[in-house]
Design a protein that fits this description.
SP0561-like; 2 domains; 9 helices; mainly alpha; 232 residues
Length: 232
């Protein structure tokens, strides 16, 4: 099998897990590397009408550049990775949600008559707020403690919790990803219209950053932490 074919037959999640820098290549092409991480590169490119050979060429070029091993997440202990996710991504979500709920509602109330899609954006983000708060609580109080317990000792109880919770968490990741994808499409990729005010622009930049962080967050769980936990 040639290297190009090897890349094309590898899943998006596996490619990004092996070298996180590949995430930027997929992001630029609109290819989902978190919730869509189980798709083969060839299939993902076909769905997005992207030339797979060009993506493979960029990935091969990336291999020639030395990487920063400090963020080689695949080599991290599952318990340590869970702590990192909580301290980095969960804290970011918890601090960002109230502000984004406020801002999306504000621009919807002020500019919703001219841009009715903002009303739907505010409604969708309100639903996402509720979903994520419950999701994070379940991970921090149930799943992640079970993973740490499984790392410390072979616990049948922890194994049962891990298998049950990972199935549920993965489904909830899909729901959150679908909501942000819908918001992205409603806003034409967070494009601020000519009559958009400063708050409009701030909100859209904030939403873009939130979506990018969510993609990394879900990738770390779906494609690295969860498989590691299931192997314990």
């Amino acid at each position: 099998m040639t290297q190009e074919n090897s890349f094309e037959e590898t899943t998006i999640g596996e490619i990004v897990a092996a070298d996180f820098r590949a995430a930027e290549i997929f992001r630029k092409e609109g290819i989902d590397f978190c919730c869509g991480g189980k798709k083969r590169l060839s299939d993902a490119c076909r769905e997005k009408s992207v030339d797979a050979s060009l993506v493979v060429r960029r990935l091969k070029e990336l291999e020639q550049i030395p990487s920063d091993q400090a963020h080689n997440y695949r080599d991290w202990d599952p318990g340590f990775l869970a702590d990192y996710i909580v301290n980095t991504h969960h804290k970011y979500i918890i601090s960002s949600l109230p502000e984004l709920v406020y801002y999306t509602q504000k621009i919807a109330s002020v500019q919703g008559s001219r841009h009715p899609e903002l009303i739907e954006v505010a409604d969708l983000f309100g639903k996402l707020n509720n979903e994520l708060l419950q999701h994070l609580e379940q991970e921090e109080n149930v799943l992640f403690p079970a993973i740490r317990e499984a790392v410390r000792k072979n616990s049948p109880e922890a194994e049962t919790i891990i298998r049950s919770e990972i199935g549920r968490m993965t489904v909830e990741h899909e729901i959150a990803g679908d909501i942000m994808d819908r918001i992205n499409r409603l806003t034409s990729g967070y494009l601020v219209p000519e009559d958009g005010c400063n708050t409009y622009g701030v909100t859209f930049r904030f939403l873009r950053r939130f979506e990018e962080d969510l993609h990394v967050h879900v990738h770390l769980e779906n494609n690295i932490l969860f498989p590691k936990a299931l192997e314990l």
